[in-house]
């Protein structure tokens, strides 16, 4: 709960509302488990995205992308952020199929 700016009392209240057992007093063990699970999921997700993009590009690994990012707080003081990377498909035949103005 501290990672979202709430303390132990908020965790107790949340667990009560959700009909869960009271939260543990020491979170280090659980934070490490959560970090490992998030890291594995992230790596698998990114590897799958790369595989799909390469497959879509007929095996070519020279792929144009657009990148955007954001922080939880303004500036660079936040430790929480998100980055999105989107493949830019420049296939003219796809454009002609989906956008009539490209004809």
UniProtKB/TrEMBL annotation:
Mutator-like transposase domain span: 2-95
Pfam families, A to Z: Mutator (PF20700)
Origin: domain of life: Eukaryota
InterPro entries in the cross-refs: Mutator_transp_dom
Name of the protein described by the UniProt record: Mutator-like transposase domain-containing protein
Source species of the chain: Nephila pilipes
Lineage: Eukaryota, Metazoa, Ecdysozoa, Arthropoda, Chelicerata
């Amino acid at each position: 709960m501290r990672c979202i700016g709430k303390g132990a009392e908020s965790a107790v209240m949340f667990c009560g509302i959700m009909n869960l057992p009271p939260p543990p007093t020491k979170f280090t063990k659980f934070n490490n488990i959560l970090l490992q699970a998030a890291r594995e999921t992230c790596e698998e997700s990114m590897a799958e995205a790369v595989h799909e993009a390469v497959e879509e590009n007929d095996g070519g690994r020279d792929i144009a992308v657009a990148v955007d990012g954001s922080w939880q707080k303004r500036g660079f003081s936040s430790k929480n952020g998100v980055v999105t990377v989107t493949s830019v498909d420049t296939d003219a035949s796809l454009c002609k199929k989906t956008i009539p103005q490209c004809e």
